[in-house]
Amino acid sequence: MADKFDVIVIGAGPGGYVAAIRAAQLGLKTACVEKWQDKQGKVAHGGTCLNVGCIPSKALLETTHKFVEARDDFDELGIVGGDVSMDVKKMMARKDKIVKNLTGGISGLFKANGVTAIDGTGQVTGNKQVEVTDFDGKKTTYEADSIVVAAGSVPVEIPPTPMTEDLIVDSTGALEFQETPERLGVIGAGVIGLELGSVWNRLGSEVTVLEAMDTFLPMVDGTIAKETLKLLKKQGMDIRLGAKVSGSEVKDKEVVVKYEDADGEQEQTFDKLIVCVGRKPYTEGVIAEGVEVELDERGFVTVDDQCRTSVPGVYAIGDCVRGPMLAHKASDEGIMVADIIAGQKAEMNYDAIPSVIYIAPELAWVGITEQEAKDQGFEVKTGTFPFAASGRAMANNATEGSAKVIADADTDRVLGVHIVGQHAGEMIAQGVIAMEFGSSAEDLALTCYAHPTMSEAVHEAALAVDGHAIHMANRKKRK
């Protein structure tokens, strides 16, 4: 029997590594098990988010957005330059450097906080035991008073489009292209599909997005989603809703995709195809047979509101449990669980978790949509403000999009905030804080916002809830 710990965390992604650091900060003897290896065969902490998800995709999105600004917008701003071109290989090398710096940074944080890093594949073999298999196949069993499963998720594969070399790829493969494909197909108009499609659309790919659902981004407020769809199409992305993929075939280093839409059977040829139809929990093999940790029919670990499993002392967090598959949700769950293990009182507000799609302009939201509010029995009132009426947006050459505040007509409590616009991912924190503290729309309206800022759009939207917006014509009767 190897060392005994107070806490062992399986997985060093944004849920696992945060849980491990928090537990160690609270005085608990903590270990974190990770099996992810980089291209050099060295263990890399950070999980999907840092290695092949949030961070590398944002590096590519920011770079390509700056490229488009320089190419298309600088002249309007009075900036005179020569022809602008993109070195894709250099862009990819920068992305890899950022990933390496951040994953190495987590290793440094482990050392600074006294977390023991264990390399290998972890498996819960008992309510107080974790077996780790290293890369040579050697198995070691560790004991722990508490175990946190933070195994994450993996991309979903679908039978019609099996992965094929570098032609049909998942989101990981799409982050490794070394040149811009002329014709790019993307299956799935969700967060990942829209972000990766945007990257290569900006670099000149002819991008076609095939989405099986008839509704575009149903989790986003309808008016904001409709506006976002219009903006993406204006940028050149061909987004086809109600397009159900039925098959694919590789011919002469091209991918022929068959799908069915309202007009019947269709066929289209691409140079590359990215499959982004969602992610599934990575729980297979993480729980040994005989350990009574319950999994649901989709493979998610069953937990309560505080991430306790059916086995005392065993917790699960992040993508392998219910709720949105978001890095910040996983991190907050990790902190909550570490606090609980240490004997503190802790909980999470799952109604105030923000989501962001890092297209340009950015799309961000928190809470429920207007339609969801009505379906839940609320009488709602809403306020919307366009960035076209914002002085800072005009100065920034970023007048596309709008902000919307949804409130309960009876109590004025904020139920949701949805924004499409420059820096929406930063501005949404205002909505999160408002909802976390149970704020009313009037609370936002009475808050003094700095001028000129993009955030003033949220202020004006809150004012507009009761027809009091200053910088746009009000349709509602003032009170």
Q: Could you tell me the mean pLDDT?
A: 96
Query: Which regions are unreliable across 5 or more consecutive residues at pLDDT < 50?
Result: none
Q: What's the alpha carbon Rg, rounded to whole Å?
A: 24 Å
Structural class by helix and strand composition? alpha/beta
Please describe the structure with a list of short key phrases separated by commas or semicolons.
five-stranded parallel sheet; 13 helices; oxidoreductase; flavoprotein; FAD/NAD(P)-binding domain; seven-stranded mixed sheet; Enolase-like, domain 1; FAD; 479 residues; alpha/beta; 3 domains; NAD; single chain
Could you walk me through the main structural features you see in this protein, from its secondary elements to its overall organization?
- The strands form five sheets. Strands 1, 2, 3, 4, 5, 6 and 17 form a seven-stranded mixed β-sheet that branches. A five-stranded parallel β-sheet has the order 8-15-9-10-11.
- The protein is globular, with a radius of gyration of 24 Å.
- By secondary structure, the protein is an alpha/beta fold.
- Strand 18 (355-357) and strand 19 form a beta hairpin.
- The chain has three domains: 4-155 and 280-348, FAD/NAD(P)-binding domain; 168-277, FAD/NAD(P)-binding domain, CATH 3.50.50.60; 352-464, Enolase-like, domain 1 (2-Layer Sandwich).
- The chain contains 13 helices and 22 strands.
